[in-house]
Amino acid sequence: MEDTVESTFPKIISVDDHVIEHGRVWLDRLPAKYHDVGPRTIQERGTMQFVGGVFSYEPSDDGELCDWWLYEDKRTPQTRLSAAAGFSRDEVKVTGITYEEMRKGCWDPKARIEDMDANWTDAQMCFPSFPRFCGQVFMEAQDKVLSDLCVKAYNDWMVEEWCGDSGGRLIPLTITHLWDADLAAAEVYRNAARGVRAVCFSEIPPYLGLPSIHGDYWEPFFRACAETGTTINMHIGSSSKMPSTSADAPAAVGSTLTFGNAMSSLTDWMFSGWLARLPDLKIVYSEGQIGWIPYILERADNVWEENRAWGGFGDKVPEPPSTYYYRQIYGCFFDDVYGLENIEKCGVNNICFETDYPHSDSTWPHSKTVGEKLMGDLPEDVIYKLVRGNAIKLLDLDFDK
Question: What is the pTM of this model?
């Protein structure tokens, strides 16, 4: 059996990886008058601490060397957690890092392709790093004229430079204007016109001080995505708030509960009415794993049936919530034995594989071996769907056609 799986395991199309933007992404694209306030990097020595989810920094001649992003009046460090590829697990710590110390595939597209080849990976879709997982850095900035330019500059770099010469192997994933739904919609249309089929969004917008998805505020953005076949991709942490239990809980508690926001967000979407109003809209949950999905679908369907008199969803959700999940929602995994044991309830057409390069959870360079171990007992047609087929259909990729 192992030899059969070894010879037939499909080439991976990963829907959740990450790019470390090089230091001139914005300098190369912003007007010169913004070069002193727009995103730029500086390298210096200092002592870094990470307490309560907040980085603090003190300059120090004998401290560690680190590359920092500067933007308006904020400083953001490059850390080994985000550029962990090539380091052993024991070396992956909350510590500063320079571009020179990173594996080149973190920020160079040609080197990324080489690392994909070493990992049995045909194609990747990468989330941003400095802008954070849905571009909320630009939403939080003071100068929204500059923010608009920064969003467009990132997307131009993503499409033209990061993905441009990859022959389709690097799949563009754009950010948008979180502070203005009409601008967000216009940016979706702009990028869709050049073939982009994926955009980042927050799993729980109110955590960012934004309107929830239960009203009409986001209608222009959601409609633009539905009309252009642009998938909405929500990474864990894209609300800038991760689940935990207390301020003094160890990081391991939050790490164990990373799926929590995805589960809450999925419930939001199933009862929002948007999936019924826009049946062509597709949404994706990245890095949340999948083992929790069958229960929340069962619970949502039960609530829909038993609590409809007071549930508050009225006529917005005419069918059981799981109907919309199986029709329009995708989950992703990189290591989830329980979820795969229940793949029929998770949905063989709703799940995609991911490698999470170059983050600390990444299975690189052993993603094929991990995949074979996880999926080796599944039928070949199901393996194909999980490893690449579902991603091809979801993102309208020019593979296997």
Answer: 0.94
pLDDT at position 6 over 50: no
Helices 321-328 and 260-272, packing angle to 10 deg: 110
Tell me which architecture the domain covering 2-26+103-395 has in CATH: Alpha-Beta Barrel (3.20)
Q: Angle 258-260-263 (CA atoms, 0-180°, nearest 5)?
A: 130
Q: Hey, where are the domains in the chain?
A: 2-26+103-395
Instruction: Report helix angle 321-328 to 293-306, nearest 10.
Output: 140
Per-residue model confidence as pLDDT tens digits over 297-311: 999 999 999 998 899
Tokens 């391991």 belong to which residue? Answer: 252
Neighbours of 356 (CB within 10 A): 23
